[in-house]
Amino acid sequence: MSSVPAVAPWVRTRLRAAPGAALAFALLVVVTACLAGAFPRAVDRYEDAGLVHTLHQARPERTTLRVSPPMPQYDMSGDAPGRLLRPDVLKRQYEKLMGTVGGSLSVDRGQSAYGIATQTDTAVPDPFIPRPSGLLAHVQLVAQSGLAGHADVREGRLPRTSGPVDAASPEVEAAVTAATAKSLHIKVGSVIHVPCVGRDPLAVRVTGILTPRDPGRAYWSTVPLLRTPSLVRTPPPDPPQTYWLGALLLPLEAAPALPGTRGEPSRYWYFAPDLGGLRARDLDHLRSTVASLESGPGLRHVRTITGEGTDVGTRLDDDLAAFSQLRSRIAPLVAVAAAGTATVAVVVLLMAGGLAADRRRTELALLRARGASLPGLTGRLLAETAVVAVPAGAAGLAAALLLFPGARTGPAVAAALAVTLTACAALPLRAALAHRAVRVTAAREDVTAVRPSRRRTVAELTLLALAAGAVATLRRSGTSAGQLVSLAPVLTGVIAALLLLRLHPLLLRRLARPAGRLRGAVGHLSLARAGRAQASAVLPLVALLTALTTAAFGGSVLTGVAEARDRAALLTVGADARMDATAALPAHLAARVRALPGVHGVAAASITYEAKPLDGEDTVPLVGVDPAAYGRLAADTGLGTFPAGELKNARTLPALASPAIAQAYGTRRPFLVRLGDGSTVTVRITTVLDRTPAVPGADFLIVNRTGLPDAAVRPTTLLLTGAHLDAGALRRAAPASVTVQTLAEMRSRYADSPLQTGAGHVYTAAVAAGAGFAVLALLLALLRAAPERAALLARLRTMGLTRAQGRRLLVLESLPQALLAAAGGTLTGWTAIRLLSPGIDLTTIALTSAQPGVDAAALHPDIWSLTAPAITVVVLTVGVAGAQAWWTGRRGSVRELRAGEGR
CA dihedral in degrees (581, 582, 583, 585; nearest 10)? Predict the structure, then answer.
């Protein structure tokens, strides 16, 4: 009969002995691994969305790769034109080029095309085409592949060829888009005569009017003229005149007829990038690929297919470079929150292992005394924690993969694996350090008694040198310093924690002397208890200071971003809402708008943008205002405040001017200003203002409206102030020709880039997670001392200590370290922000593009972000201490004494 083992397996026994602790530990690992795995995937998601958004905004005329061989010298007597322009030849070259371009760049075949187009606009004499300034309309002849698959026939039919076509063909068929037909008065059956060289004009008969499918995509928008005609203005120095320019869409088989025209036809191949297949992580490869195609090995390969002299042109590289620069400025700021949160999370995991080791200190010491080897004990503890941590880490990783699909898996797996390994190693390493020597009772490690070792001093000096180097480099190089931006606040917090731990014993000794002279034992006893705190309290303090520093830094960043957007929106709108028209506004509009809910004030302004001082060529916006209403508006917005008496009406109108205008025309002498209708006014600059609400630009002149000629008195702009203005109600109250802008709508436009909004969301989430881990670290630190405090209260109550005195004792005992962390965190956050602010410009993350007149958004301390987390730490510490005292009082002294003796 087989014998039954007398001893149950270690892991199963320990898990059954403390299921609550194992479950709490598993939950901690799940949450931490999920956050760690989600961070890189969230960054990938918003960076990919930002890249696609950037290229969508750039439009296909910039992002499409255009392969253009040089225009050959066509010999009309030979067959070269027909051979080069045959559809089969063009298609064969297109497929070869697709293999070259598509092999290194993701290409959207459905939006790519090839064909032949005239490079020179040709004037056509047909009288039915409009002539706005008397000039003949011009046309381009385009034979592009895939026309039938990218357009719907609105009228007529698609063009075709009825036989062989060459340079001598007298007539071809074509189609036009509906927009071209409307602007050029073209109908089905219209014939357009395109001049030729040495022969009669080529008759182009329109057989169909088309409606483009997906007109905003690359097929139609690489050359917008294909779908939309343009009204071209003649260049100076000739008098400005305009003429129509449109495109006639020929079938590809009719391309051999183009060499006979004066349009100088040329072949082309367009390759539209597949935006859905672009990833921000491949940005360097994309830029290298585009550079190779433009002027590298890729271009040489293209020329072997199409001939020497072929050019590959695109503005895609400029857009990729702009996105790369934006990302490089935003990424270090996001990494600040990530580094802070990661540091606090690691500390919490280590504290969880330390708490478990302290809870089982007696058990592990007894095992060592009975002969357990240190490697064997460490291995058993590692197996015990791995059984819980590994499945929990896998569950956290799975949750991160499900929450953020479509991103890279490798960084998420690495981050979750790091969390799992840290969680597995925390308890075994802490136990190995505590029990490397065999002893039953542990030596006291009071914070006031333990002297820092030489190794600790060297480590602290090393960290101090790294922090100083990071801060100095960041102040000198800005966000281009890379990861130093993310490490500098964290290193500052760690250095501050180490410094405060050295100052903590000194402060306690200084406070203990005067406390000893006080009546009553609670104050002196609480300080003595605070001095007997373990010197290993470095981890909670590092966690708290790092979290407080990161929260202060992050809150200041978010506040600075919000302030920059508010400032930019206010400079653009000039008030809470704005109504503009190119002509005079209706007389009743101001009264109607003033009656709307939420409108507090209305300031009318008549703006003439074509005013010319001294009858010169330079134009300046001249603003006529009501001094009282406009002065109140300027005071409310803080844009160019001035006394209302500065704009008294007189023969020579006093004027408020921008610094550039005041410098150009002087502030002493009056000067003449000619308005757009030819009338004149005489003004003299009396006050210089940097900003003004009515004009978003940097140049302006402001005068009393009643002193202007009658034609310029009628207001063209209304500036509204009020809370919670309804944009819809304002638009309903105004005529259709009036443009309405609100401050809230304008502000939202500055955050429409997924790269910026995504970075802001990830930053906020990381700071919130760091704050949560810091609270958990504080709770773990309090939980670690809870049993000893409970036993102390029970003993003291047997000596006559009241419940109120017990609450005061625990609160006063916990206050020194809480106040130290709160004050140190506030001071460290302020110091870090002041030290790092010269190297950080928040304008990039705040605004989608450079905003004229908006100063760089600098990082500055935010009082709420500095004080709120620190106050929370103190309140939470006091609250937990008070709650523990209340709960201990309810349980009774005998039970706590027994529990305390057991510990």
Answer: 10
Q: Give phi and psi for 481, each to the nearest 5.
A: -70, -5
Number of neighbouring beta carbons within 10 Å of residue 95: 12
- Tell me, yes or no, whether 9 lies in a domain: no
Structure tokens at 695: 């004009």
Cβ atoms 676, 610 nearer than 8 A: yes
Instruction: Collapse the DSSP code of 803 into the 3-class scheme (helix H, G, I; strand E, B; otherwise coil) and give the result.
Output: helix
Helix-strand-coil percent breakdown of the chain, rounded to 5? 55, 15, 30
| Res 159: pLDDT | 94
As a whole number of angstroms, the distance between CA 601 and CA 594 comes to 7
Q: 255 by DSSP, 3-state: which?
A: helix
Q: Quote the CA–CA distance of 711 and 679 in Å, as a whole number.
A: 9
pLDDT of amino acid 474: 66
Q: In this structure, are 408 and 471 located in the same domain?
A: no
Tokens 């071809």, located at residue: 172
% of the chain exceeding 70 in pLDDT: 83
Q: Does residue 547 have a pLDDT over 60?
A: yes
Instruction: Please count the residues of the chain.
Output: 903
Cβ of 250: how many Cβ atoms within 10 Å? 27
pLDDT tens digits for range 205-227: 999 999 999 998 999 999 999 99
Phi-psi region of 596 (alpha: psi -120 to 50; beta: other; left: phi over 0): beta
Look at residue 112 and give its three-state secondary structure: coil
273 and 328 in a common domain:
no
Counted domains in the chain:
4
Q: Which amino acid is at 122?
A: T
β-pairing, 113-118 vs 138-144, is antiparallel
pLDDT in tens, 367-376: 777 777 888 8
Which residues have a Cβ under 8 Å from the Cβ of 774 and sit 6 or more positions away? 344, 543, 544, 546, 547, 548, 551, 869, 873
Give the pLDDT of residue 533: 55
Rounded Cα distance, 158 and 596, in Å: 55
When computed from its CA atoms, the radius of gyration of the chain, rounded to whole angstroms, is: 38
Name the pLDDT band for 642 (thresholds 50, 70, 90). Answer: confident
Q: How far apart are CA 614 and CA 559, in angstroms?
A: 45
Mean pLDDT within 318-337: 83
Indicate whether 839 belongs to any domain. yes
| Residue in the structure block whose two tokens are 């190119």 | 582
269 and 341 part of one domain: no
Q: How many CB atoms lie within 10 A of CB 739?
A: 13
Same domain assignment for residues 460 and 362: no
Inside any domain, residue 272: yes
Average pLDDT taken over every residue of the chain: 81
Residues 340 and 300 in one domain: no
Quickly state the pLDDT bin for 507 (edges 50, 70, 90). Answer: low
pLDDT at residue 402 in the model: 93
The C-alpha angle 77, 80, 83, rounded to 5 degrees, equals: 130
Residue 618 near residue 671 (C-beta atoms within 8 A) = no
Give the pairing of strands 138-144 and 242-250: parallel
Please give the structure tokens belonging to residue 333: 């700021």
724-748 pLDDT per residue, tens: 888 888 888 888 888 898 888 888 7
Q: 3-class secondary structure for 478-496? A: HHHHCCHHHHHHHHHHHHH
Q: If we measure between CA atoms, which residue out of 114, 104, 66 comes closest to residue 298?
A: 104
CA distance 140 to 154: 21
696 belongs to a structural domain: yes
Cα–Cα distance for residue pair 538/816, rounded to 1 Å: 14
Q: Are residues 53 and 37 in the same domain?
A: yes
Omega cis (within 30) before 514: no
Please enumerate in sequence order all residues whose Cβ is within 8 A of that of 619, keeping only pairs 6 or more positions apart, or say none.
Answer: 609, 610, 611, 612
Range(s) of the domain holding residue 260: 65-282+296-313
| Residue among 522, 512, 530, 518 nearest 802 (CA) | 522
Q: Would you say residue 297 has pLDDT above 50?
A: yes
Token output for 447? 């914070």
